[in-house]
Design brief:
It is a single chain. The chain has two domains: 47 residues; 131 residues, Orthogonal Bundle (Lysozyme). Helix content is 59%, strand content 0%. The chain has seven helices and no strands. It is elongated, with a radius of gyration of 28 Å. The N and C termini lie far apart (64 Å).
């Protein structure tokens, strides 16, 4: 009724004004949706750039730290042409589940088998576990089994340092711990690289 009683000139002005209001309001909500969508996508990409994290995990300092640990291990395994490169997720899962230094297991694999390059045939045992002759079905099984063993039989029984672990693990060797620390330091240097995350591919 209001529009019907208006002159032609005012009808045009009213309709134009109404259209402007609609154009002004709706694109804002559309744009907001686009921003939210892009943010979610960026979060997904950030968390899934060579990581095992699911898309809806909040991107925070803890997740960034885990990404850095994973990337550091991945880079060092790549440097040594390790056949364990596909087991980086297991290294991360093991250190979180069993509350271990995330560089401990990779360092042991580095010392005992050059990161899986020098093992008894078909054993998937890069840690020298059981003298190196215990057989596992996969690298992943080896990682999780040895991590559990370290937690249960070493740390839970009082071991606090690499030296404590080495005294038992390497039959009272006086050099094992120093060599493990050397590999751990190599992993730590990789972790501390400023472009570690941006170099993820």
């Amino acid at each position: 009724m209001l529009i019907k009683n208006m002159t032609h000139k005012y009808k045009i002005l009213f309709i134009t004004g109404l259209l402007l209001v609609l154009i002004f309001l709706f694109p804002r909500s559309i744009f907001a949706d686009e921003i939210a969508g892009n943010s979610a996508q960026l979060k997904y990409l950030a968390l899934n750039t060579n990581t095992y994290f699911i898309p809806d995990v909040q991107f925070d300092a803890l997740n960034l730290e885990r990404i850095k640990y994973k990337k550091a291990i991945q880079n060092v395994l790549t440097r040594y042409q390790s056949p364990m490169i596909e087991s980086v997720d297991s290294f991360m899962e093991a250190c979180i589940e069993y509350d271990l230094d995330c560089f401990m297991l990779p360092a042991i694999a580095g010392l005992e088998s050059r990161f899986g390059n020098m093992i008894a045939p078909a054993t998937f045992n890069p840690f020298g576990w059981g003298g190196g002759y215990i057989t596992f079905e996969s690298w992943d099984e080896a990682v999780m089994t040895v991590a559990k063993g370290l937690r249960k039989n070493y740390y839970d029984k009082g071991a606090k340092t690499v030296e404590d672990v080495g005294y038992i693990y390497a039959n009272k060797s006086t050099t094992w711990a120093g060599k493990i620390r050397s590999f751990m330091n190599e992993l730590k240097r990789e972790y501390e690289k400023k472009d570690l995350i941006s170099s993820a591919k």
